[in-house]
Amino acid sequence: MEHVTVSEEPSAALMYHVERPVFSEGYIDSELLHRKKRTSKSLQRRIAEHLRCSSEKAKSVVFGFLPILTWLPSYPLKQYLFGDIVSGISTGVMQLPQGLAYAMLAAVPPVFGLYSSFYPVLLYTFFGTSKHISIGTFAVISLMIGGVAVREAPDSMFAVNGTNASQVVDFEARDARRVEVVVALTTLVGIIQLVLGLLRFGFLAIYLTEPLVRGFTTAAAVHVSVSQIKYLLGVHTARFNGPLSVVYSLDAVFRNIASTNVVTLIIGLVCTVFLYIIKDLNERFKKKLPIPIPGEIIVVIVSTGISYGMVMSENYGVEVVGKIPTGLLPPKIPDFSVFPNLFPDAFAISVVGFSIAISLAKTFALKHGYSVDGNQELIALGLCNFMSSFFHTFVVTASMSRSLVQESTGGHTEIAGLLASILVLLVVVAIGFVFQPLPTTVLAAIIMVNLLGMFKQLKDIPALWRTSKIELAIWLVSFFASVLLGLDYGLVVAMGFAILTVIYRTQCPKNALLGQIPDTGLYFDVDEYEEAEECSGIKIFQSNTSIYFANSDLYVSALKAKTGIDPAKLLAGRKSQIKYAKRDNGERKAVNHCSSVKKNAVVLLDVELGVTHEVVAGPKKQMDHVYTNGQMNENHTESDSEDDFFLQRLTPIHTIILDFTPVNFIDSVGAKCIKSVSQQLLFPKKTLEDRLVRSGLIH
């Protein structure tokens, strides 16, 4: 029975006094608790139950696979429709120039960016669970795709007459091959995401910790910016891929900087400044503006008109987008022969794309009070990429900038994304040719201004320095590895390092001795807090890690170092005491044989420590500096001889408490180490008695 009393003295702090019986583990298992009897099901029965179909189960599966069926029948037209229309138009207007621009990053003609802004967005409306993310082209994913396309179809493969001497490249054949590679990559990414979703691997994104993703995307922003410098300056250089590609790209640009097209540079700088001002105004007055100012589409329309009117491509040598076919291309089966070469890249792109999408989806879901299903999001992205790849698209994911626009302009459901895709379709079918005179430097300006948000992530460095050095290390390793080694190898290195930090946390935990705060039941680190005082004769050891095969020896070493007690030295000391005690006892027997005076020995056994004290009978004398219950007894008289007591306490510590509050688990190796230390510290009484009997110290 538990008795609780509450002190109600107004001047004192509220205190609880709890009294309850002390139960042993054996008593609890045998008397208080009884496990429920469970009948194990056979494998055949479990499979049959899993495959059994019912109307409720079928309905649940269909609704889970097609989330649109759960919200579309109850869609509130009056409340949501106007907001979704405004949001869809705003997002679509933003998606058009970004689709054209990010196609350049993917190393394919711009029109394929428009295709990728239509088909996947349309499909996500039916299969996605997030109401606010904008699916489509994204800079980081597009850059990773472009790296694969350039590697599999480099310019050298399409040099006229099979040489690079003249640097003449068959661009039409090169672009056609790169489109085939990109489409095959998109198909493979869709398959991987779909399989992972069906296997319920939606938790996969948790292994891409936030510092890793933010460092990786910041490095991707560096890659993207460097790749766009040549378009901003109007110089022609090769596209590099792999380790140190950033260095090679900068070197190539500076080597050819003398051939900068001044008109192209002026157009690019003017567009960059204008877009930056518009972006800043949208950010400052977002609460006052009903919809963001569509700076990107304004720049595209104005620059296209000026370029067309002044015939900049012919008169000033300004590079333009070029031919954009009107209408949609017929579906085509991807080239499956390149799959083996693309699988590592496809897996990396699928994981990165999903992690970006699910992080944005969870952010908006938390803000607006609904939930997203990670597994269904994987399936939705997989279907969007797989099915769209037959219609000449490249890999898509959620875009941060467009998602913010879709949410801030009043978007409530996936209808906003559907309307945005319809707007893109109208442009592709009807007026796609209008954008043919658009200067590529304008697209480069759009890309670089949209990267400002990623570069702001550099502010994470001082924040992480103050909060977590390990997470800062993950951020920096992810950033520098991705910048120097490329996004593919950089991601692998960053993930490996992040896993190593988990091991490091268990290998180098915080070890502390706890002391009591006076007049309280609180215990804190004695090295950290002045008020914490150790209890006399007691050591309370705490280590904030689990104990398993990789760190069990380190745990024991830290325990010895912190408490100052080494069981091996204690055991050696005991053996030495027993040895000398046996010798002194033999001498004493020889003396007593000649003397009529007999001394009766009284052996005191300290069970907790396994230490012994022998006091020789005679005049009562207190032992000199003998530790009793962890405290040294100072009130003693001078001993006539050291023989009066020969087995003294070896340490003032009589109790060691292991605080397992932070310990999540202990494996068998850790348990054996703890048991071994306990057996060494808690020297068994029977073992001690046997040794003393064998030594002739007691009879």
Automatic annotation (TrEMBL):
Superkingdom of this entry's organism?
Eukaryota
* Residue ranges of domain STAS in the record: 528-681
Presence of keyword Cell cycle: no
Q: How does it sit in the membrane?
A: Multi-pass membrane protein
Any transmembrane segments, and where? Answer: 100-127, 133-150, 181-208, 257-277, 289-311, 346-366, 378-398, 418-451, 472-504
Q: Does Transmembrane helix count among this protein's keywords?
A: yes
Q: Where in the cell is it found?
A: Membrane
Keywords tagged on the record = Membrane, Transmembrane, Transmembrane helix
Annotated InterPro entries: S04_transporter_CS, SLC26A/SulP_dom, SLC26A/SulP_fam, STAS_dom, STAS_dom_sf
Family annotation (NCBIfam families): sulP
Record's protein name: STAS domain-containing protein
- Source species: Cyprinus carpio
Q: Which gene is the coding source of this polypeptide chain?
A: LOC109066902
